[in-house]
Protein: Glutaminase
Organism: Streptomyces ureilyticus
Amino acid sequence: MVIMAVSSSSSTFQPVLDRIAAEIENMPARGRPADYIPALAACDPRRFGMAVAELDGTVYGVGDWRQPLSTQSLTKVFTLALVLAGGGDALWERVGREPSGNPFNSLVQLEYENGIPRNPFINAGALVVTDRLHTQTGDAAGTLLDFLRAESGNAQLASNKDVAASEAAHGDRNAALGHFMASYGNIGNPVPTLLDQYFRQCSIEASCADLALATGFLARHGIRADGTRLLTSSQAKQVNAVMLTCGTYDAAGEFAYRVGLPGKSGVGGGIIAVVPGHCTLCVWSPGLDERGNSVAGVAALERFTTLTGLSVF
Ligand code: DON
């Protein structure tokens, strides 16, 4: 597949992206960057980029769409897909598929629910998924990086070591989640190994263009950029469904209401979204709301589905 970067105003999505960027420019409040990871706190909340990738790899973009961003929890979608591809439904014995209604780093449900996290997109669930991927491959973060490079066509993608170190230095909550689940037998690798893999995973940097392309397999019903199959079309449907119901934490209902697409946010300010059978999107703006979702990112996706009529509903 040829990956083409297009920004001509005659293209299908470009006028819509230009209009959204102009509207976002006038937004008064843009939220605040994540400050619990000091390396992310310095980001300017007024940065904004958005990319749309069509099924054939044609990409449209606006603003900071080629600027690398910290992927953070966006990576949870790709690790989930890789584990399902490698190990099938066995994963669902270790992690649920229900919205948690709690913050992404919450501990409270885990004890009531015997160390089984509610879903793969809260931190506890993502740790279980990364643990499985590490057991399957021997190198969870490396496998993820290879996948993102292949799907985006960008061989330069890498983890940011400063961000990974910053996360490790402030990672007590993730360590607590990992050890607690290990006490229930739900983690197979040593917790320090798992945390190292998880922080390397979260600190991968990629642009909106890279991430819109890398998400393409979910719009192509499981087919990768090179035409091979990663997931069955059923599995792709299932991943999209979990994104819709759980991808934006305790704001998933509001996100579905406003945007009407499967989406996944990260505290780096990125959001990926899927229009199955049509296109994928990635938007970035580092200012977050109190639930950890990009303020301008959600607004931009809401405008996209409103202006184009493209949604799953
Ligand atoms: O686990 C953490 O704290 C981060 N590395 C990732 C969290 C994240 O992006 C949650 N998203 N909104």
Remarks:
- The CA atoms of residues 260 and 311 lie 5 Å apart.
